[in-house]
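REVIEWER CHECKLIST
Item 1: Sequence provided? yes
Item 2: Single chain? yes
Item 3: Sequence as submitted:
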Amino acid sequence: MYKYKRKRGTLLKKQVQILFFYHPLPRHRKEGVKVLGAFSPWKGIIVMQNQDELVQIVTKMDGKPYPAYKVIKGVYQYQDYELLIDHVQGDPFAIPSKVRVRIPISTAGFPADTYHNECRTTALCDFLARQFYHSIKKHNRQQQGSGKSGAIEIDRPGQEVLKTSSMVIIDGCIEVRFLVGLPAFGRRIAGKIAAHIFSDTIPRIVNDSLYYQKLPEDKLYRHIETVEDAEFIRKNLPESGLIAFVADNAVLPRASGVDPKPLSSKELVPFKSCQSMRVSMTLPNYGEISGMGIRRGVTLIIGGGYHGKSTLLNALEYGIYNHIPDDGREFVVTNADAVKIRAEDGRGIQNLNIDPFISNLPFDQDTTEFSTANASGSTSQAANILEALEVGALTLLLDEDTLATNFMIRDIRMKTLIAKEKEPITPFVEHVRSLYGKKGISTVIVMGGSGDYFSLADAVIGMIEYRPQDLTSQAHQIAKDDPTPEHFDATPPSEIPRIPAPNVLSPSKGKRPIDIKIDELLYMRFGEHKVNVSAIEQLVHPSQLRTIGYAIHYASRYMDGINSIKEICRLVLDDIQEKGLDCLSDREARGDFAEFRSYELAATLNRFRALRVEQKHTTHIKNMQ
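Item 4: Structure as written out by the authors:
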Protein backbone atom coordinates (compact mmCIF):
# COMPACT_ATOMS: atom_id res chain seq x y z
CA MET A 1 0.00 0.00 0.00
CA TYR A 2 1.22 3.48 -0.83
CA LYS A 3 0.19 6.80 0.70
CA TYR A 4 0.38 10.24 -0.82
CA LYS A 5 -0.09 13.79 0.41
CA ARG A 6 -2.31 16.28 -1.29
CA LYS A 7 -0.47 19.30 -2.65
CA ARG A 8 -2.58 22.27 -3.66
CA GLY A 9 -5.51 20.09 -4.62
CA THR A 10 -3.53 17.62 -6.76
CA LEU A 11 -1.82 14.31 -6.17
CA LEU A 12 1.92 14.06 -6.16
CA LYS A 13 1.49 10.97 -8.28
CA LYS A 14 -1.33 10.61 -10.79
CA GLN A 15 -3.21 7.71 -12.27
CA VAL A 16 -3.80 5.96 -8.97
CA GLN A 17 -6.99 4.59 -7.52
CA ILE A 18 -7.75 6.56 -4.38
CA LEU A 19 -10.04 6.15 -1.41
CA PHE A 20 -11.13 8.51 1.33
CA PHE A 21 -12.40 6.87 4.49
CA TYR A 22 -13.19 7.80 8.06
CA HIS A 23 -10.91 6.68 10.84
CA PRO A 24 -9.52 8.23 14.04
CA LEU A 25 -5.80 8.91 13.85
CA PRO A 26 -3.46 9.85 16.70
CA ARG A 27 -1.60 13.14 16.54
CA HIS A 28 1.84 11.55 16.56
CA ARG A 29 1.41 9.43 13.41
CA LYS A 30 2.69 11.04 10.24
CA GLU A 31 3.45 8.37 7.64
CA GLY A 32 3.17 10.90 4.83
CA VAL A 33 -0.53 11.50 5.48
CA LYS A 34 -2.04 14.92 6.00
CA VAL A 35 -3.65 14.81 9.46
CA LEU A 36 -6.13 17.48 10.51
CA GLY A 37 -6.35 16.52 14.20
CA ALA A 38 -6.52 13.68 16.66
CA PHE A 39 -9.91 12.56 15.33
CA SER A 40 -9.70 13.93 11.78
CA PRO A 41 -12.32 12.41 9.47
CA TRP A 42 -9.71 12.19 6.71
CA LYS A 43 -6.99 9.65 7.18
CA GLY A 44 -5.46 10.54 3.84
CA ILE A 45 -5.32 9.60 0.18
CA ILE A 46 -4.53 5.95 -0.12
CA VAL A 47 -3.70 3.81 -3.09
CA MET A 48 -6.06 0.86 -2.80
CA GLN A 49 -4.94 -2.54 -3.91
CA ASN A 50 -7.29 -5.44 -4.51
CA GLN A 51 -7.79 -8.89 -3.08
CA ASP A 52 -5.57 -10.61 -5.65
CA GLU A 53 -2.69 -8.26 -4.93
CA LEU A 54 -2.97 -8.89 -1.20
CA VAL A 55 -2.92 -12.64 -1.79
CA GLN A 56 0.13 -12.31 -4.04
CA ILE A 57 1.97 -10.18 -1.48
CA VAL A 58 1.53 -12.62 1.41
CA THR A 59 2.27 -15.63 -0.81
CA LYS A 60 5.63 -14.13 -1.80
CA MET A 61 6.42 -13.50 1.87
CA ASP A 62 6.48 -17.22 2.64
CA GLY A 63 9.49 -18.00 4.85
CA LYS A 64 10.46 -14.39 5.48
CA PRO A 65 10.93 -12.97 9.00
CA TYR A 66 7.61 -12.21 10.71
CA PRO A 67 8.02 -8.38 10.77
CA ALA A 68 7.75 -8.37 6.97
CA TYR A 69 3.98 -8.69 7.45
CA LYS A 70 3.96 -4.98 8.35
CA VAL A 71 3.76 -3.97 4.67
CA ILE A 72 0.24 -5.39 4.27
CA LYS A 73 -1.27 -2.71 6.47
CA GLY A 74 -3.77 -0.82 4.31
CA VAL A 75 -7.01 -1.03 2.35
CA TYR A 76 -7.93 -3.73 -0.16
CA GLN A 77 -10.88 -3.85 -2.53
CA TYR A 78 -12.69 -7.17 -2.61
CA GLN A 79 -15.60 -7.88 -4.95
CA ASP A 80 -18.10 -5.52 -3.33
CA TYR A 81 -16.60 -4.66 0.02
CA GLU A 82 -13.35 -3.32 1.45
CA LEU A 83 -10.96 -5.11 3.77
CA LEU A 84 -8.91 -2.82 5.99
CA ILE A 85 -5.87 -4.05 7.88
CA ASP A 86 -5.44 -1.44 10.62
CA HIS A 87 -2.75 -3.01 12.80
CA VAL A 88 -0.32 -5.82 12.09
CA GLN A 89 0.92 -7.81 15.06
CA GLY A 90 4.68 -7.75 15.53
CA ASP A 91 4.97 -11.34 16.68
CA PRO A 92 2.94 -14.55 16.15
CA PHE A 93 2.43 -14.75 19.93
CA ALA A 94 1.14 -11.16 20.23
CA ILE A 95 -2.47 -10.02 20.11
CA PRO A 96 -3.73 -10.84 16.59
CA SER A 97 -3.86 -8.21 13.86
CA LYS A 98 -6.81 -5.82 13.70
CA VAL A 99 -8.93 -6.12 10.57
CA ARG A 100 -12.15 -4.53 9.39
CA VAL A 101 -14.59 -5.24 6.59
CA ARG A 102 -16.79 -2.43 5.28
CA ILE A 103 -19.71 -3.13 2.98
CA PRO A 104 -22.31 -0.57 1.88
CA ILE A 105 -25.60 -1.46 3.53
CA SER A 106 -27.32 -1.06 0.16
CA THR A 107 -24.95 -3.66 -1.30
CA ALA A 108 -25.59 -5.96 1.65
CA GLY A 109 -29.28 -5.61 0.82
CA PHE A 110 -30.78 -4.87 4.24
CA PRO A 111 -34.23 -3.23 4.09
CA ALA A 112 -34.49 0.19 5.73
CA ASP A 113 -36.93 -1.12 8.34
CA THR A 114 -34.15 -3.23 9.88
CA TYR A 115 -32.20 -0.14 10.98
CA HIS A 116 -34.48 2.91 10.75
CA ASN A 117 -34.15 3.80 14.45
CA GLU A 118 -31.44 3.46 17.09
CA CYS A 119 -33.01 0.45 18.78
CA ARG A 120 -33.33 -1.49 15.52
CA THR A 121 -29.80 -0.52 14.48
CA THR A 122 -28.42 -1.93 17.74
CA ALA A 123 -30.45 -5.12 17.32
CA LEU A 124 -29.38 -5.55 13.68
CA CYS A 125 -25.70 -5.09 14.54
CA ASP A 126 -26.04 -7.56 17.41
CA PHE A 127 -27.65 -10.14 15.13
CA LEU A 128 -24.92 -9.72 12.49
CA ALA A 129 -22.17 -10.00 15.11
CA ARG A 130 -23.67 -13.32 16.23
CA GLN A 131 -23.87 -14.51 12.63
CA PHE A 132 -20.26 -13.50 12.03
CA TYR A 133 -19.17 -15.30 15.20
CA HIS A 134 -20.92 -18.53 14.20
CA SER A 135 -19.63 -18.22 10.64
CA ILE A 136 -16.07 -18.05 11.98
CA LYS A 137 -16.67 -21.29 13.90
CA LYS A 138 -18.06 -22.87 10.73
CA HIS A 139 -15.40 -21.84 8.23
CA ASN A 140 -12.21 -21.21 10.14
CA ARG A 141 -10.14 -24.24 10.88
CA GLN A 142 -7.18 -22.80 12.74
CA GLN A 143 -4.05 -23.84 10.91
CA GLN A 144 -0.97 -25.31 12.49
CA GLY A 145 1.69 -22.82 13.35
CA SER A 146 3.07 -20.63 16.08
CA GLY A 147 1.10 -18.66 18.63
CA LYS A 148 -2.12 -17.22 17.24
CA SER A 149 -1.55 -18.53 13.72
CA GLY A 150 -4.78 -18.70 11.74
CA ALA A 151 -7.04 -17.53 14.57
CA ILE A 152 -9.98 -15.37 13.54
CA GLU A 153 -11.85 -13.81 16.44
CA ILE A 154 -14.69 -11.38 17.04
CA ASP A 155 -15.91 -10.16 20.41
CA ARG A 156 -18.21 -12.98 21.54
CA PRO A 157 -21.81 -11.88 22.21
CA GLY A 158 -23.62 -12.99 25.36
CA GLN A 159 -27.30 -13.40 26.22
CA GLU A 160 -27.78 -9.64 26.37
CA VAL A 161 -28.12 -7.33 23.37
CA LEU A 162 -25.51 -4.61 23.79
CA LYS A 163 -24.37 -1.78 21.60
CA THR A 164 -20.78 -2.73 20.77
CA SER A 165 -17.94 -1.62 18.53
CA SER A 166 -17.44 -5.04 16.92
CA MET A 167 -20.28 -4.47 14.45
CA VAL A 168 -21.37 -0.93 13.59
CA ILE A 169 -23.19 0.97 10.88
CA ILE A 170 -21.16 4.03 9.82
CA ASP A 171 -21.64 6.33 6.85
CA GLY A 172 -24.07 3.98 5.16
CA CYS A 173 -21.80 0.97 5.60
CA ILE A 174 -21.86 -2.11 7.77
CA GLU A 175 -18.44 -2.39 9.41
CA VAL A 176 -17.28 -5.51 11.23
CA ARG A 177 -14.11 -5.41 13.33
CA PHE A 178 -12.26 -8.60 14.14
CA LEU A 179 -8.84 -10.10 14.80
CA VAL A 180 -6.75 -12.27 12.49
CA GLY A 181 -3.72 -14.19 13.71
CA LEU A 182 -1.28 -13.92 10.81
CA PRO A 183 0.22 -17.41 10.47
CA ALA A 184 3.84 -18.36 11.02
CA PHE A 185 6.06 -21.33 11.68
CA GLY A 186 8.36 -20.27 14.45
CA ARG A 187 8.90 -16.62 13.59
CA ARG A 188 8.85 -17.15 9.84
CA ILE A 189 5.85 -16.16 7.76
CA ALA A 190 3.52 -18.95 6.61
CA GLY A 191 2.59 -17.10 3.42
CA LYS A 192 0.52 -19.80 1.74
CA ILE A 193 -1.67 -20.21 4.81
CA ALA A 194 -2.09 -16.43 5.03
CA ALA A 195 -3.05 -16.35 1.37
CA HIS A 196 -5.77 -18.94 2.01
CA ILE A 197 -7.15 -16.89 4.90
CA PHE A 198 -7.44 -13.73 2.78
CA SER A 199 -8.58 -15.41 -0.42
CA ASP A 200 -10.97 -18.04 0.93
CA THR A 201 -11.71 -18.07 4.68
CA ILE A 202 -12.55 -14.40 5.27
CA PRO A 203 -14.67 -14.13 2.08
CA ARG A 204 -16.66 -17.20 3.13
CA ILE A 205 -17.28 -15.75 6.59
CA VAL A 206 -18.33 -12.40 5.15
CA ASN A 207 -20.58 -13.90 2.49
CA ASP A 208 -22.35 -16.09 5.03
CA SER A 209 -22.99 -13.39 7.62
CA LEU A 210 -23.25 -9.89 6.15
CA TYR A 211 -25.66 -10.28 3.22
CA TYR A 212 -29.40 -10.08 3.82
CA GLN A 213 -30.20 -12.75 1.22
CA LYS A 214 -27.96 -15.27 3.00
CA LEU A 215 -29.58 -14.81 6.42
CA PRO A 216 -32.76 -16.38 7.84
CA GLU A 217 -35.24 -13.52 7.43
CA ASP A 218 -37.65 -14.78 10.09
CA LYS A 219 -34.92 -15.03 12.73
CA LEU A 220 -33.53 -11.62 11.81
CA TYR A 221 -36.87 -9.86 12.20
CA ARG A 222 -37.73 -11.80 15.35
CA HIS A 223 -34.42 -10.68 16.86
CA ILE A 224 -35.00 -7.04 15.95
CA GLU A 225 -38.65 -7.00 17.02
CA THR A 226 -37.96 -8.73 20.35
CA VAL A 227 -35.40 -6.07 21.26
CA GLU A 228 -37.73 -3.30 20.13
CA ASP A 229 -40.62 -4.70 22.18
CA ALA A 230 -38.46 -4.98 25.32
CA GLU A 231 -37.33 -1.39 24.89
CA PHE A 232 -40.95 -0.36 24.44
CA ILE A 233 -41.82 -1.99 27.80
CA ARG A 234 -38.92 -0.22 29.53
CA LYS A 235 -39.89 3.20 28.19
CA ASN A 236 -43.49 2.69 29.29
CA LEU A 237 -42.81 1.45 32.81
CA PRO A 238 -42.90 4.93 34.44
CA GLU A 239 -46.31 5.94 33.09
CA SER A 240 -47.69 2.62 34.36
CA GLY A 241 -46.27 3.24 37.84
CA LEU A 242 -43.95 0.24 37.49
CA ILE A 243 -40.27 -0.36 38.06
CA ALA A 244 -40.24 -3.81 36.44
CA PHE A 245 -42.28 -6.27 34.39
CA VAL A 246 -41.96 -10.07 34.34
CA ALA A 247 -43.84 -11.73 31.49
CA ASP A 248 -45.93 -14.83 31.96
CA ASN A 249 -44.12 -17.99 30.78
CA ALA A 250 -40.71 -16.37 31.23
CA VAL A 251 -37.89 -18.79 32.05
CA LEU A 252 -36.00 -17.23 34.95
CA PRO A 253 -33.48 -19.86 36.15
CA ARG A 254 -30.16 -20.21 34.36
CA ALA A 255 -28.41 -23.39 33.29
CA SER A 256 -25.79 -22.99 36.02
CA GLY A 257 -23.88 -20.43 38.01
CA VAL A 258 -21.39 -20.08 35.15
CA ASP A 259 -23.75 -20.62 32.21
CA PRO A 260 -26.20 -17.75 31.60
CA LYS A 261 -28.27 -19.71 29.09
CA PRO A 262 -31.82 -20.65 30.21
CA LEU A 263 -32.32 -23.78 32.25
CA SER A 264 -33.55 -26.72 30.24
CA SER A 265 -35.16 -29.30 32.50
CA LYS A 266 -38.32 -31.35 32.78
CA GLU A 267 -38.80 -29.89 36.26
CA LEU A 268 -38.67 -26.32 34.96
CA VAL A 269 -41.57 -24.15 36.16
CA PRO A 270 -42.28 -21.21 33.83
CA PHE A 271 -43.11 -17.94 35.56
CA LYS A 272 -46.78 -17.07 35.91
CA SER A 273 -48.02 -13.93 37.64
CA CYS A 274 -50.55 -14.03 40.44
CA GLN A 275 -53.83 -12.45 39.38
CA SER A 276 -53.69 -9.43 41.70
CA MET A 277 -50.33 -8.29 40.28
CA ARG A 278 -50.98 -9.11 36.65
CA VAL A 279 -50.80 -6.30 34.12
CA SER A 280 -51.28 -6.38 30.37
CA MET A 281 -49.88 -4.24 27.59
CA THR A 282 -49.81 -4.19 23.82
CA LEU A 283 -46.37 -4.35 22.25
CA PRO A 284 -45.68 -2.91 18.78
CA ASN A 285 -44.63 -6.28 17.33
CA TYR A 286 -45.55 -9.11 19.71
CA GLY A 287 -49.00 -7.74 20.43
CA GLU A 288 -50.85 -8.43 23.68
CA ILE A 289 -48.68 -9.60 26.58
CA SER A 290 -49.38 -10.15 30.28
CA GLY A 291 -47.22 -10.62 33.33
CA MET A 292 -46.42 -9.40 36.79
CA GLY A 293 -45.92 -5.68 37.26
CA ILE A 294 -43.73 -4.61 40.17
CA ARG A 295 -44.88 -1.19 41.25
CA ARG A 296 -42.91 1.71 42.62
CA GLY A 297 -42.35 1.68 46.37
CA VAL A 298 -41.04 -1.01 48.71
CA THR A 299 -41.39 -4.60 47.48
CA LEU A 300 -40.44 -7.69 49.47
CA ILE A 301 -39.73 -11.05 47.87
CA ILE A 302 -40.13 -13.73 50.55
CA GLY A 303 -40.40 -17.50 50.74
CA GLY A 304 -38.57 -20.62 51.78
CA GLY A 305 -35.12 -21.64 50.65
CA TYR A 306 -34.85 -22.92 47.06
CA HIS A 307 -38.27 -21.57 46.09
CA GLY A 308 -37.01 -18.98 43.57
CA LYS A 309 -36.60 -15.73 45.54
CA SER A 310 -33.06 -14.94 44.41
CA THR A 311 -33.79 -16.26 40.93
CA LEU A 312 -36.52 -13.65 40.53
CA LEU A 313 -34.30 -10.85 41.84
CA ASN A 314 -31.47 -12.00 39.57
CA ALA A 315 -33.80 -11.72 36.57
CA LEU A 316 -34.75 -8.20 37.65
CA GLU A 317 -31.08 -7.33 38.15
CA TYR A 318 -30.29 -8.14 34.51
CA GLY A 319 -33.60 -6.80 33.26
CA ILE A 320 -31.82 -3.49 32.71
CA TYR A 321 -30.57 -5.09 29.47
CA ASN A 322 -32.49 -6.35 26.47
CA HIS A 323 -32.08 -10.06 25.75
CA ILE A 324 -32.00 -12.27 22.70
CA PRO A 325 -35.05 -14.33 21.68
CA ASP A 326 -35.39 -17.65 23.51
CA ASP A 327 -33.27 -16.42 26.41
CA GLY A 328 -36.37 -16.89 28.56
CA ARG A 329 -35.96 -13.39 30.03
CA GLU A 330 -36.51 -11.41 26.83
CA PHE A 331 -39.60 -9.83 28.37
CA VAL A 332 -38.26 -9.48 31.89
CA VAL A 333 -37.69 -5.73 31.88
CA THR A 334 -36.43 -3.44 34.64
CA ASN A 335 -36.08 0.31 34.57
CA ALA A 336 -32.66 1.50 33.44
CA ASP A 337 -31.89 3.20 36.78
CA ALA A 338 -32.03 0.07 38.95
CA VAL A 339 -28.82 -0.79 40.83
CA LYS A 340 -27.96 -4.02 42.63
CA ILE A 341 -26.51 -3.43 46.10
CA ARG A 342 -24.42 -5.83 48.15
CA ALA A 343 -21.95 -5.89 51.02
CA GLU A 344 -18.31 -5.86 49.98
CA ASP A 345 -15.81 -6.55 52.74
CA GLY A 346 -12.44 -4.92 52.26
CA ARG A 347 -13.26 -2.29 49.66
CA GLY A 348 -11.86 1.22 49.93
CA ILE A 349 -14.03 4.27 50.57
CA GLN A 350 -12.95 7.83 49.90
CA ASN A 351 -14.41 10.90 51.62
CA LEU A 352 -18.05 9.79 51.72
CA ASN A 353 -20.78 10.99 54.06
CA ILE A 354 -22.00 7.72 55.58
CA ASP A 355 -23.49 9.46 58.63
CA PRO A 356 -27.12 8.69 57.68
CA PHE A 357 -26.35 4.97 58.12
CA ILE A 358 -23.29 4.86 60.37
CA SER A 359 -22.36 7.35 63.11
CA ASN A 360 -21.08 7.51 66.70
CA LEU A 361 -18.00 5.44 65.88
CA PRO A 362 -15.45 4.79 68.63
CA PHE A 363 -12.72 7.40 69.13
CA ASP A 364 -14.99 10.07 67.60
CA GLN A 365 -14.23 9.03 64.03
CA ASP A 366 -15.82 11.43 61.53
CA THR A 367 -18.48 9.72 59.43
CA THR A 368 -19.52 12.80 57.43
CA GLU A 369 -16.25 12.65 55.46
CA PHE A 370 -15.42 9.02 55.97
CA SER A 371 -12.47 7.22 54.36
CA THR A 372 -11.13 3.72 54.87
CA ALA A 373 -8.95 1.26 53.01
CA ASN A 374 -10.73 -1.77 54.47
CA ALA A 375 -14.48 -1.34 54.88
CA SER A 376 -16.58 -3.81 56.86
CA GLY A 377 -19.64 -5.48 55.39
CA SER A 378 -22.08 -2.95 56.81
CA THR A 379 -19.90 0.06 55.97
CA SER A 380 -19.31 -1.12 52.42
CA GLN A 381 -23.04 -1.71 51.92
CA ALA A 382 -23.78 1.80 53.15
CA ALA A 383 -21.17 3.17 50.74
CA ASN A 384 -22.55 1.18 47.82
CA ILE A 385 -26.04 2.59 48.43
CA LEU A 386 -24.83 6.17 48.85
CA GLU A 387 -22.59 6.02 45.77
CA ALA A 388 -25.47 4.66 43.65
CA LEU A 389 -27.78 7.43 44.88
CA GLU A 390 -25.03 9.98 44.21
CA VAL A 391 -25.14 9.10 40.50
CA GLY A 392 -28.94 9.04 40.34
CA ALA A 393 -30.20 5.51 41.03
CA LEU A 394 -34.00 5.32 41.35
CA THR A 395 -34.37 1.65 42.32
CA LEU A 396 -32.27 -0.43 44.73
CA LEU A 397 -32.18 -4.23 44.44
CA LEU A 398 -31.02 -6.18 47.52
CA ASP A 399 -30.70 -9.87 48.32
CA GLU A 400 -30.20 -10.98 51.93
CA ASP A 401 -27.72 -13.64 50.78
CA THR A 402 -25.18 -10.93 49.87
CA LEU A 403 -26.01 -8.33 52.52
CA ALA A 404 -24.69 -7.47 55.97
CA THR A 405 -27.41 -8.60 58.38
CA ASN A 406 -26.59 -5.96 61.00
CA PHE A 407 -27.05 -3.28 58.34
CA MET A 408 -30.50 -4.54 57.37
CA ILE A 409 -32.21 -5.21 60.75
CA ARG A 410 -31.88 -5.07 64.56
CA ASP A 411 -34.48 -7.06 66.44
CA ILE A 412 -36.05 -6.19 69.79
CA ARG A 413 -33.81 -8.42 71.85
CA MET A 414 -30.63 -6.95 70.36
CA LYS A 415 -31.94 -3.43 70.90
CA THR A 416 -32.63 -4.31 74.51
CA LEU A 417 -29.16 -5.69 75.06
CA ILE A 418 -27.25 -3.02 73.09
CA ALA A 419 -28.70 0.45 73.57
CA LYS A 420 -29.27 2.57 70.48
CA GLU A 421 -26.64 5.13 71.52
CA LYS A 422 -24.07 2.30 71.65
CA GLU A 423 -24.87 1.02 68.16
CA PRO A 424 -23.28 3.06 65.32
CA ILE A 425 -25.48 1.53 62.60
CA THR A 426 -28.89 2.90 61.71
CA PRO A 427 -30.25 -0.15 59.89
CA PHE A 428 -31.71 0.05 56.42
CA VAL A 429 -35.13 -0.94 57.76
CA GLU A 430 -35.34 2.54 59.29
CA HIS A 431 -34.57 4.21 55.96
CA VAL A 432 -36.41 2.19 53.36
CA ARG A 433 -39.76 3.94 53.82
CA SER A 434 -38.40 7.48 53.79
CA LEU A 435 -36.23 6.75 50.77
CA TYR A 436 -39.39 6.22 48.77
CA GLY A 437 -41.67 8.70 50.53
CA LYS A 438 -39.21 11.61 50.45
CA LYS A 439 -36.87 10.72 47.60
CA GLY A 440 -38.96 8.56 45.27
CA ILE A 441 -36.40 5.75 45.45
CA SER A 442 -37.95 2.29 45.21
CA THR A 443 -36.50 -0.84 46.79
CA VAL A 444 -36.89 -4.53 46.02
CA ILE A 445 -35.57 -6.79 48.79
CA VAL A 446 -35.24 -10.54 49.00
CA MET A 447 -35.84 -11.22 52.70
CA GLY A 448 -36.57 -14.75 53.83
CA GLY A 449 -35.32 -14.53 57.41
CA SER A 450 -37.04 -11.52 59.01
CA GLY A 451 -40.51 -10.01 59.08
CA ASP A 452 -39.36 -6.58 60.22
CA TYR A 453 -40.09 -5.15 56.77
CA PHE A 454 -43.71 -6.38 56.62
CA SER A 455 -45.26 -3.17 57.88
CA LEU A 456 -43.10 -1.08 55.54
CA ALA A 457 -43.76 -2.94 52.30
CA ASP A 458 -46.15 -1.79 49.60
CA ALA A 459 -46.12 -5.28 48.11
CA VAL A 460 -45.04 -8.69 49.40
CA ILE A 461 -44.38 -11.35 46.78
CA GLY A 462 -44.25 -14.88 48.18
CA MET A 463 -42.30 -17.32 46.03
CA ILE A 464 -43.80 -20.76 46.72
CA GLU A 465 -42.57 -23.63 44.57
CA TYR A 466 -41.30 -21.08 42.02
CA ARG A 467 -44.72 -19.44 41.66
CA PRO A 468 -45.32 -15.89 42.89
CA GLN A 469 -48.21 -15.24 45.25
CA ASP A 470 -49.47 -11.92 46.57
CA LEU A 471 -48.99 -12.11 50.35
CA THR A 472 -49.26 -8.38 50.98
CA SER A 473 -52.47 -8.43 53.02
CA GLN A 474 -51.31 -11.39 55.14
CA ALA A 475 -47.97 -9.72 55.84
CA HIS A 476 -49.67 -6.46 56.83
CA GLN A 477 -52.03 -8.34 59.13
CA ILE A 478 -49.13 -10.08 60.86
CA ALA A 479 -47.42 -6.71 61.32
CA LYS A 480 -50.65 -5.27 62.75
CA ASP A 481 -51.10 -8.13 65.19
CA ASP A 482 -47.50 -7.89 66.39
CA PRO A 483 -46.58 -4.23 65.87
CA THR A 484 -43.02 -2.96 65.93
CA PRO A 485 -42.55 -0.64 68.94
CA GLU A 486 -40.67 1.97 66.88
CA HIS A 487 -41.84 4.07 63.95
CA PHE A 488 -39.25 3.74 61.21
CA ASP A 489 -38.91 7.03 59.36
CA ALA A 490 -35.27 8.12 59.46
CA THR A 491 -34.13 11.16 57.55
CA PRO A 492 -33.11 9.97 54.08
CA PRO A 493 -29.51 10.54 53.02
CA SER A 494 -28.78 13.65 51.00
CA GLU A 495 -26.54 13.34 47.97
CA ILE A 496 -23.45 15.49 48.53
CA PRO A 497 -21.49 15.78 45.26
CA ARG A 498 -17.90 14.58 45.46
CA ILE A 499 -15.24 16.09 43.22
CA PRO A 500 -12.26 13.97 42.08
CA ALA A 501 -8.81 15.52 42.15
CA PRO A 502 -7.29 15.92 38.68
CA ASN A 503 -4.23 14.04 37.42
CA VAL A 504 -4.40 11.27 40.03
CA LEU A 505 -5.30 8.21 37.94
CA SER A 506 -2.87 7.44 35.13
CA PRO A 507 -3.19 4.47 32.73
CA SER A 508 0.53 4.50 31.92
CA LYS A 509 2.87 1.71 32.91
CA GLY A 510 6.55 1.59 32.03
CA LYS A 511 6.97 2.70 28.44
CA ARG A 512 3.28 2.22 27.69
CA PRO A 513 1.27 5.47 27.81
CA ILE A 514 -1.95 3.45 28.04
CA ASP A 515 -1.92 0.03 29.65
CA ILE A 516 -5.47 -1.09 30.46
CA LYS A 517 -6.18 -4.80 30.89
CA ILE A 518 -9.01 -6.80 32.41
CA ASP A 519 -9.36 -10.19 34.04
CA GLU A 520 -12.86 -11.24 33.00
CA LEU A 521 -15.26 -9.35 35.30
CA LEU A 522 -13.02 -9.64 38.35
CA TYR A 523 -10.22 -7.10 38.04
CA MET A 524 -9.15 -4.14 35.97
CA ARG A 525 -5.48 -3.23 35.62
CA PHE A 526 -5.25 0.49 34.88
CA GLY A 527 -1.59 1.37 34.54
CA GLU A 528 -0.09 0.68 37.95
CA HIS A 529 -3.52 0.39 39.59
CA LYS A 530 -5.37 -2.88 40.20
CA VAL A 531 -9.10 -2.51 40.83
CA ASN A 532 -11.36 -5.25 42.20
CA VAL A 533 -14.72 -4.99 40.42
CA SER A 534 -16.14 -8.42 41.28
CA ALA A 535 -18.92 -6.86 43.38
CA ILE A 536 -20.22 -4.73 40.48
CA GLU A 537 -22.74 -7.40 39.63
CA GLN A 538 -24.62 -5.80 36.74
CA LEU A 539 -21.66 -5.92 34.39
CA VAL A 540 -22.37 -8.83 32.05
CA HIS A 541 -19.62 -8.72 29.41
CA PRO A 542 -15.84 -8.31 29.78
CA SER A 543 -15.84 -5.71 27.01
CA GLN A 544 -17.99 -3.48 29.21
CA LEU A 545 -15.26 -3.44 31.85
CA ARG A 546 -12.56 -2.83 29.23
CA THR A 547 -14.58 0.08 27.85
CA ILE A 548 -15.05 1.52 31.35
CA GLY A 549 -11.26 1.48 31.75
CA TYR A 550 -10.85 3.56 28.60
CA ALA A 551 -13.77 5.75 29.67
CA ILE A 552 -11.99 6.54 32.94
CA HIS A 553 -8.89 7.54 30.97
CA TYR A 554 -11.08 9.63 28.65
CA ALA A 555 -12.80 11.19 31.66
CA SER A 556 -9.53 12.76 32.80
CA ARG A 557 -10.32 15.72 30.53
CA TYR A 558 -13.35 16.42 32.73
CA MET A 559 -11.59 15.84 36.06
CA ASP A 560 -10.77 19.49 36.54
CA GLY A 561 -11.35 19.91 40.25
CA ILE A 562 -14.80 21.37 39.57
CA ASN A 563 -16.92 18.59 38.05
CA SER A 564 -18.46 16.04 40.40
CA ILE A 565 -18.41 12.27 39.81
CA LYS A 566 -22.00 12.45 38.59
CA GLU A 567 -21.21 15.29 36.19
CA ILE A 568 -18.11 13.52 34.87
CA CYS A 569 -20.09 10.34 34.17
CA ARG A 570 -22.78 12.36 32.39
CA LEU A 571 -20.24 14.20 30.22
CA VAL A 572 -18.52 10.96 29.20
CA LEU A 573 -21.80 9.24 28.31
CA ASP A 574 -22.99 12.32 26.40
CA ASP A 575 -19.84 12.17 24.28
CA ILE A 576 -20.33 8.45 23.62
CA GLN A 577 -23.95 9.10 22.64
CA GLU A 578 -22.86 11.81 20.19
CA LYS A 579 -19.63 10.33 18.81
CA GLY A 580 -19.92 6.60 19.47
CA LEU A 581 -17.71 4.27 21.48
CA ASP A 582 -14.77 5.01 19.15
CA CYS A 583 -14.24 8.37 20.85
CA LEU A 584 -12.73 6.54 23.83
CA SER A 585 -9.74 5.30 21.83
CA ASP A 586 -7.09 7.60 20.36
CA ARG A 587 -5.62 4.87 18.18
CA GLU A 588 -7.11 2.61 15.51
CA ALA A 589 -10.77 1.63 15.64
CA ARG A 590 -11.37 -1.08 18.24
CA GLY A 591 -13.75 -4.00 18.07
CA ASP A 592 -13.79 -4.85 21.77
CA PHE A 593 -15.85 -2.04 23.33
CA ALA A 594 -19.39 -2.43 24.72
CA GLU A 595 -21.88 0.03 26.18
CA PHE A 596 -22.18 0.56 29.93
CA ARG A 597 -24.18 2.71 32.36
CA SER A 598 -23.08 5.63 34.50
CA TYR A 599 -23.65 3.47 37.61
CA GLU A 600 -21.00 0.93 36.64
CA LEU A 601 -18.63 3.68 35.51
CA ALA A 602 -18.96 5.48 38.85
CA ALA A 603 -18.75 2.21 40.80
CA THR A 604 -15.46 1.31 39.11
CA LEU A 605 -14.05 4.79 39.63
CA ASN A 606 -14.99 4.67 43.32
CA ARG A 607 -13.01 1.46 43.76
CA PHE A 608 -9.69 3.01 42.74
CA ARG A 609 -7.72 3.15 45.97
CA ALA A 610 -5.70 6.03 44.55
CA LEU A 611 -8.82 8.13 43.96
CA ARG A 612 -8.84 11.41 45.88
CA VAL A 613 -12.08 13.34 46.23
CA GLU A 614 -13.45 16.28 48.19
CA GLN A 615 -17.09 16.92 49.02
CA LYS A 616 -18.40 19.94 47.19
CA HIS A 617 -19.32 21.88 50.32
CA THR A 618 -15.86 21.53 51.88
CA THR A 619 -12.46 22.98 51.15
CA HIS A 620 -11.84 23.45 47.43
CA ILE A 621 -10.14 20.50 45.86
CA LYS A 622 -7.10 22.53 44.91
CA ASN A 623 -6.11 22.50 48.58
CA MET A 624 -5.63 18.73 48.25
CA GLN A 625 -2.76 19.11 45.81
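Item 5: Key structural point noted by reviewer: Residues 200 and 348 are 53 Å apart (CA to CA).
Item 6: Recommendation: ____
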